[in-house]
C-alpha cells in the first residue's frame, strides 16, 4: 500500500515520499497563482479551484489568501463562502456543505500526529475526515480538529477549538468547543 493510500484510509503514513511531496507542491503552485490574481479576476480564481478541488458547487467563493495541502480531498458545497485566510490541511476528506459561511482566519486540520514520541520523531502522521453540514456558520478564528463532524445549521462561535462532533441545530463555543444552546 502506498503512503497516499494509507493517508486516505486514515492510517499512519509518511508524508515525505515523492508522490505526496509532488502533489503538495502542485497545490502550492496553483494556490500561488490563485492568491496573486487581481481582485477582479474572479472567474480565473474560480477555475483554478475547480481544477484543484475534489468537487465544488456551481456557485461558491473563497476569499484569498487561501491555503491547503492537496485540494483534491476538499468537497465544497453550493453557495458556500469562506472569508480571508482559510487554511485547510486536507490529508483526509473535507466536506463543506451547502450554504456554509466560514469566517476569517479559520483552520480546518485533518492531519494529526501520533502520541508516541518515537513515531512522531520518525515522521508519521495520520488524517481523519472532517464534515461541516449545510447551513452552518463557522465564526472567525475557529480551529476544527481531525475527525470532527459538525452538523447542519450549527453556529460555531468565534475563536472556538472544535475537538468533538457538534450536533445539528446548535450553537457551540469555546475551547474546547461545547454546545450552549439548541436552535429552533
TrEMBL record:
Pfam families: Hexapep, Mac. Keywords: Acyltransferase, Repeat, Transferase. The keyword Ubl conjugation does not apply. The keyword Transferase applies. It comes from the Bacteria. InterPro entries: Hexapep, Hexapep_transf_CS, LacA-like, Mac_dom, Trimer_LpxA-like_sf. Its EC number is 2.3.1.-. Transmembrane segments: none annotated. Residues 4-58 form the Maltose/galactoside acetyltransferase domain. It is an enzyme of class 2 (transferase). Belongs to the transferase hexapeptide repeat family. PANTHER family: ACETYLTRANSFERASE YJL218W-RELATED, GALACTOSIDE O-ACETYLTRANSFERASE. This is Acetyltransferase.
Amino acid at each position: 500500500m502506498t503512503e497516499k493510500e494509507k493517508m486516505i484510509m486514515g492510517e499512519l503514513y509518511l508524508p515525505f515520499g515523492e508522490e505526496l511531496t509532488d502533489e503538495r507542491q502542485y497545490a502550492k503552485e496553483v494556490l500561488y497563482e490563485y492568491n496573486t490574481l487581481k481582485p477582479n479576476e474572479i472567474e480565473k480564481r474560480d477555475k483554478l479551484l475547480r481544477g484543484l478541488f475534489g468537487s465544488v458547487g456551481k456557485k461558491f467563493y473563497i476569499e484569498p489568501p487561501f491555503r491547503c495541502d492537496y485540494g483534491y480531498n476538499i468537497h465544497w458545497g453550493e453557495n458556500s463562502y469562506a472569508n480571508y485566510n482559510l487554511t485547510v490541511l486536507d490529508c483526509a476528506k473535507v466536506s463543506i456543505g451547502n450554504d456554509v459561511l466560514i469566517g476569517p482566519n479559520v483552520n480546518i486540520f485533518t492531519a494529526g500526529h501520533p502520541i508516541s514520541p518515537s513515531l512522531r520523531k520518525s515522521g508519521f502522521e495520520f488524517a481523519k475526515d472532517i464534515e461541516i453540514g449545510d447551513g452552518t456558520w463557522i465564526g472567525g478564528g475557529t480551529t476544527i480538529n481531525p475527525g470532527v463532524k459538525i452538523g447542519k445549521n450549527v453556529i460555531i462561535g468565534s475563536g472556538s477549538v472544535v475537538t468533538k462532533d457538534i450536533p445539528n441545530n446548535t450553537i457551540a463555543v469555546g475551547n474546547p468547543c461545547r454546545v450552549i444552546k439548541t436552535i429552533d
